[in-house]
Amino acid sequence: MVVVAGSAVVVSQASADQKTLDLKKWYVLVNRNSGKVLDDRGSAKNDGAAVVQWARHGGANQQWRFIDAGDGYYRLQNRTSGKVLDDLGWSKTAGTAIVQWKDLNATNQQFKLAKSSKGYVRLVNRFSGMAVGVRKAAKANGGNVVQNRDRGGADQQWQLVPVGSVGGGTSPAPSSSVPASQTPSDTRPSSSPSSSPSSPAAGGSSSAKRFMGSDKVLIGGSMSDTSATAAPFDMRYAYVHSQPAPSSDYYTAARCKDEWSSWWGCWNGSTTAPGTYVTWRDDVVADATYKGKPRPQKMLWTWYSLRDLGDAAGEGDGPGEVKAINRRDLLTRYLNDYRFFLQKIGTSHDAIDLEPDFWGFARTLGNLHQVPAQVSAANPTDCGSQENSASGLAQCLIHMAHKYAPNAAVGLHLSCFDWESNVQKCVKDYADLGARNADFLVSDVSDRDAGWYAQPAHGSRDSFWTDQKAAAALKFYKTMAESAGKPVVLWQIPVGNMAQNNTRNHYKDDKVDWFFAHMDQVANAHVAGLFFGPGQEEQTTVESDGGNLINKTIAYHNSGGTALK
Fold first, then answer.
1. Which of 53, 51, 17, 12 lies closest to 35, judged by CA?
2. Stretch 235-258: mean pLDDT, rounded?
């Protein structure tokens, strides 16, 4: 029972020990297990912004007020953002993130105060029935706030301390102009989205305002340096894949050796230092020009090395990859190589596309939390606390990217081969992989031109687009974006056009023209970038398409572009 009395609500003992809740006061919520407080990470103000625990420092991003939602439920509003706590995506899944969202007074934003001992309460979500806690009962700053079954654990108990009090065993930290909870992964404004696509709870009305420093849908691709300066392209992409270096000597050598040339770090030859491939490409795109004037671009790296690790395991892609991640020796080499790659990116504002196809292979084995991987043993330094599973591996890769390349955006590749028949399984699996902790998602439309696939020798397959096919694909991208709260970029889009003659490097396709003619639909699906390029050596390229992509990109730029949504 609740009785409204002026600005206070008297909460019955059946609900909480903390008897009087003043609806005009701001509170700090102190976690019983860690002593940390509920925190709007980095003082973010966008829908979908993360909520974490952090040492109390007195900032407004750690202050919350309770708004009466009726029937004993409340919405918790953050003082900095004005947003309220939200069960992301109306989820009933244990481990789902608790985030901030604009106040819709929806049931997934309403919480009751359930009684615990010594004045602590549990926040139980009205929609899911789950309690708000800290993931894995972590005690460190930055621990993610999630929902889980209400088990009454200390990590699910919170003390409500009115602002100005020194309760909860904590004391304010010295004030500063930057909130203490602003971690490196929160200070990447030119590479990470500053606002996420809306969740189902928001009815699709919010917007992802920036991605990779832009508030417009980005255009880029795989092309020569000459082509890249012929139009105002925003980004370039390139693969990084090979078997990992066999020893740490490769990373510390002053120069590559001729016999190391098959390793990606020495692709630039024996006259250069290991890793020059990455630093050189970053320098090239940063120095790009258009019409003789500086036009800096950014790199999207497709990290595609589990394919090669499968070879090392003796079975190639697919079965070999899922075997390799459960071998400590191979996964150790792989993660060492990935760390070196990230260190070469350093402070550059790049984007990283993690492992096309692999997540699809892992998904076929069932629950991603149960696909074994030797994560903690392979990299105890960076990922010692991660789950030993494919899910834990995904989280390890995301965490390492944020640690070693703090200005880079990192995205999981959407390998949802079954999306047309079971999109909800894809939603669940990518939630299990921790997609909401990444910065974006990546999907590919097709790996070959439609004219190539149409030939009898290649299966007589119809992969030309119709408005109906395009609408279905965009619906899928939008569903995944909204489920994870992250934008999607489309990668390796076929470059062909209908003026080609279906010969080598001149195959027909209709996707370039379709996308540029329907940019509003693209943006409405929360697509933040279109990156064009061939998926195989016979396909049409930017250099062989008759100038179509270059001309379309120039016209798009001259039109002012299309705003992200």
1. 53
2. 96
